[in-house]
Specification:
single chain, TIM Barrel, eight-stranded parallel beta barrel, 12 helices
Length: 365
């Protein structure tokens, strides 16, 4: 029997109302003093709670993990309290929400780091990338390589963040291991030139991934944990000499933890879906025992076809959710979509954040 995009789905003990997922979307609207989610954040997520699952914007696990101005954290009591406003609002609308746990690694700059320090990464190799520092886009800084004995601290920061996510009322967590951030930097041989047990072979480069997933699954049941990879994306200047081999191993590591889902960016992050020679998404999916969440440029027809054919179990939509809080209903009814205002995507107030109309608004209902 053909499965529909709008049918419920179970992941572990959770029942998702449909197979439409709101992808993580950085919106840069945390309160600057303390990187706090707040009442407006809660309204934004609650408006979109008809998705089968919401995944929060990337949420830094520590002050060191921050790479962009006005992004929320999940390491202080105030941040936990702010996220509790969000999760309560989502649950009041019948929704489910996971926290995306994020450490940007080298994708940062001195002004965003504690005491103006250099950002950290697997190796002292700068990303040819830019970050938003609150005044504009500036080049990322030269990182310092994490010492071997510091890595346990980073793993512990992820564990504490997972524990804080539970205290904040989230339904689970997603590890951000994509888009050129810290875990992705360790996985790839273009950014990881280490000579200790975290570098060299793919088994070593994936060691941090395994240690972090181990920490998260000690806090949460494994089915309440997901992981996001972007195997063939070069976002934030990451590269790998053999991405298929690298991510075949990374997906296998994730599968061994019996996670709830594998979330893949199919192609370039926010860009083309074209894949390089030798890339095989289906082969990666076959290595994972749980649900498969597909992401990147899906429209209604593509999503329905992928779910109907069993190519994916869940479809994550990003930018369409910015302008369409009732995206699920619009997809179901094949209704026109609002067009997003790109000038309000990052930073600002309620304009371009919580003021997009729903179908009910447009009809006066």
């Amino acid at each position: 029997m053909t499965t529909s995009l709008y049918e419920p789905m179970r992941i572990g003990e959770l029942t998702l109302a449909n197979r439409v997922v709101m992808a993580p979307l950085t919106r840069n609207r945390a309160l600057p003093d303390g990187d706090l989610p707040h009442a407006l954040t809660a309204r934004y997520y609650a408006q979109r709670a008809s998705a089968g699952l919401l995944i929060s914007e990337g949420t830094q696990i520590s002050a060191e993990g921050k790479g962009y101005a006005w992004t929320p954290g999940i390491y202080s009591a105030g941040q936990v309290a702010g996220w509790r406003l969000v999760t309560d609002a989502v649950h009041a609308r019948g929704g489910l929400i996971f926290a995306q746990l994020w450490h940007v690694g080298r994708v940062s700059t001195h002004s965003l780091q504690p005491n103006g320090q250099a950002p950290v990464g697997p190796s002292a190799i700068a990303a040819n990338s830019r970050t938003f520092d609150g005044t504009g886009f500036s080049p990322t800084a030269m990182p310092r390589a994490l010492a071997t004995d510091e890595i346990a601290r980073v793993v512990e920061d992820f564990r504490k963040a997972a524990d804080n996510a539970k205290e904040a009322g989230f339904d689970g967590v997603e590890l951000h291991a994509a888009n050129g951030y810290l875990i992705d930097q360790f996985l790839r041989d273009g950014s990881n030139h280490r000579e200790d047990r975290y570098g060299g072979s793919i088994e070593n480069r994936a060691r941090l991934l395994g240690e972090v997933l181990g920490a998260l699954t000690r806090v949460w049941p494994s089915q309440r944990v997901g992981v996001r990879f972007s195997p063939f994306s070069n976002a934030n200047d990451v590269s790998d000499s053999d991405p298929m081999t690298t991510f075949a191993h990374a997906v296998s590591v994730a599968s061994n933890f019996r996670l709830g889902y594998l979330h893949l960016v199919e192609g370039q992050t926010g860009g083309t879906r074209e894949l390089p020679p030798g890339a095989d998404l289906a082969a990666l999916r076959r290595r994972f025992k749980g649900a498969y969440m597909a992401n990147n440029g899906y429209d209604r027809t593509m999503a329905q076809n992928a779910i109907g054919a069993g190519v994916a179990d869940l479809i994550a939509f990003g930018r369409p959710f910015i302008a369409n809080p009732d995206l699920v209903e619009r997809l179901r009814r094949n209704a026109p979509l609002n067009v997003g205002d790109h000038t309000t995507y990052f930073g600002g107030s309620e304009k371009g954040y919580t003021d997009y109309p729903t179908l009910a608004d447009a009809s006066g209902g």
